[in-house]
Every structure is written in structure tokens, then in C-alpha cells.
Design a protein that fits this description.
The structure holds 2 protein chains of 2 kinds.
Chain A: E1 5-7, E2 10-13, E3 19-24, E4 31-37, E5 44-50, E6 53-57, E7 65-68, E8 75-79, E9 88-95, E10 105-106, E11 110-114
Parallel strand pairs in A: 2-11
Antiparallel strand pairs in A: 1-3, 3-8, 4-5, 4-9, 5-6, 7-8, 9-10, 9-11
Chain B: E1 4-5, E2 10-14, E3 19-25, E4 32-38, E5 45-51, E6 56-59, E7 62-67, E8 72-77, E9 86-94, E10 96-99, E11 103-108
Parallel strand pairs in B: 2-11
Antiparallel strand pairs in B: 1-3, 3-8, 4-5, 4-9, 6-7, 7-8, 9-10, 9-11
Classes of the chains: A mainly beta, B mainly beta.
Chain lengths: ~120, ~110
């Protein structure tokens, strides 16, 4: 399977705990994106990387959120001191190259539940 | 401020008939659009895209139409099949994707 993979698929945590999610993009893709989706909404952009450089962060990404992409391969998204409002599906996507004509391919997502 | 809008939250269509899903956008600078399909508990799957230099793009049963003057695009599925039942999102691509809120399509026998 050469698609985008995410781990874990589900995470249940208590409020105040830290969580970390991992995304492995399609191997030849140099762009990697994180989105968050809540019930009844479309996915909302959080941040993206081109190779190892983080090029843009959304205002949705509070200082409790941090993302990394060391060596330009897999990426991690960490949420510190989780809050109930962080409960959502966290989606990772990757694309080949720059410019607008490259479609983004999504992983299956990590569903976070904060109790 | 919803820059990409899907005003119909749901659509029900009989198998074999045409499904038409609509999408409106507000930013005239948007010039590339994509449609994604999403099943429960899965990530969105890319379906079809269109650049603003075209007004139509076709791929098998799926056709996307773009009306730039009206800032409107639509996805036509002909003929509709039960396996098409899913949530459909339109999105504009400005380096990042800006999604609409989705339309749930139900295709019944």
C-alpha cells in the first residue's frame, strides 16, 4: 500500500494530557498537510510543509499545537494540554511538487476524543 | 467567513438518474477546484478537478462544470450508483485546500 498512512487511527485521552499523531506521506511527495475536521464541517487547514520546512500555519493552530517534519519524510502533530474542543478528526494529506495543479491525497485520519 | 459554500446538506437520488451537486465560492482569485468524496471513518478521496481556464472536465461518470462569472461549480454523476452514496466536498486550491461543508448524497435503488 503506497498511500498516505496515519497512526493511531483512534485516540481517547483525558483533558490535560498530551497526544502525538504520526503521518507517513506518499514517498515521492514533497508537500505534507494537516487538516482538522469536526462534525458537519469540511476539513480545515492547520499547517503544511514543503520538504522539512513548515511554510504556513493557520490561526486555528494555537500554541498548544506543534508539527514537525524532520528529514522531509514523515510528520508528527503534537497537541499539549488537550481540551475537549480538540476532539476532531485529524487528517494528513500529501501532494507532489508545488503549484496549484497537484491534487492532495489524504490518509484515513486520526480520530481524537478528549474526555 | 465561508469562502466555499455547499448550500445543500443532503441530496437523495434514484439509482440510474443524474446527481447534481452544487458549490459556490466568493473569491474571484480562486482558479483551481477539486471534488472529494468521503465515506465514514475514511479520509477524503480525490474525484475530479478543474482549472479556471476550462469550463468543463469529464472523467467517466463524473463531470465538473465551472461558471466563473457566477462563481459556481457543479459535479454531475451519471448514472448514479448506490456505491456513490457518500459525502461530497468541493474545495479550492490556494496552496492549501479550502473546503465547503459537504453534501451527503444518498443513491437509492
Amino acid at each position: 500500500d503506497t498511500g498516505v498512512s496515519q497512526d493511531p487511527r483512534h485516540k481517547i485521552t483525558k483533558r490535560g494530557q498530551n497526544v502525538t499523531f504520526r503521518c507517513d506521506p506518499i514517498s515521492e511527495h514533497n508537500r505534507l498537510y494537516w487538516y482538522r475536521q469536526t462534525l458537519g464541517q469540511g476539513p480545515e487547514f492547520l499547517t503544511y510543509f514543503q520538504n522539512e520546512a513548515q511554510l504556513e500555519k493557520s490561526r486555528l493552530l494555537s500554541d498548544r499545537f506543534s508539527a514537525e517534519r524532520p528529514k522531509g519524510s514523515f510528520s508528527t502533530l503534537e497537541i499539549q494540554r488537550t481540551e475537549q474542543g480538540d476532539s476532531a478528526m485529524y487528517l494528513c494529506a500529501s501532494s507532489l511538487g508545488t503549484g496549484l495543479i497537484h491534487e492532495q491525497y489524504f490518509g484515513p485520519g486520526t480520530r481524537l476524543t478528549v474526555t | 467567513d465561508q469562502q466555499v459554500k455547499q448550500n445543500s446538506p443532503s441530496l437523495s437520488v434514484q439509482e440510474g438518474r443524474i446527481s447534481i451537486l452544487n458549490c459556490d465560492y466568493t473569491n474571484s482569485m480562486f482558479d483551481y477546484f477539486l471534488w472529494y468524496k468521503k465515506y465514514p471513518a475514511e479520509g477524503p478521496t480525490f474525484l475530479i478537478s478543474i482549472s479556471s481556464i476550462k469550463d468543463k472536465n469529464e472523467d467517466g461518470r463524473f463531470t465538473v462544470f465551472l461558471n466563473k462569472s457566477a462563481k459556481h461549480l457543479s459535479l454531475h454523476i451519471v448514472p448514479s450508483q448506490p456505491g456513490d452514496s457518500a459525502v461530497y466536498f468541493c474545495a479550492s486550491n490556494t496552496d492549501k485546500l479550502i473546503f465547503g461543508t459537504g453534501t451527503r448524497l444518498q443513491v437509492f435503488p
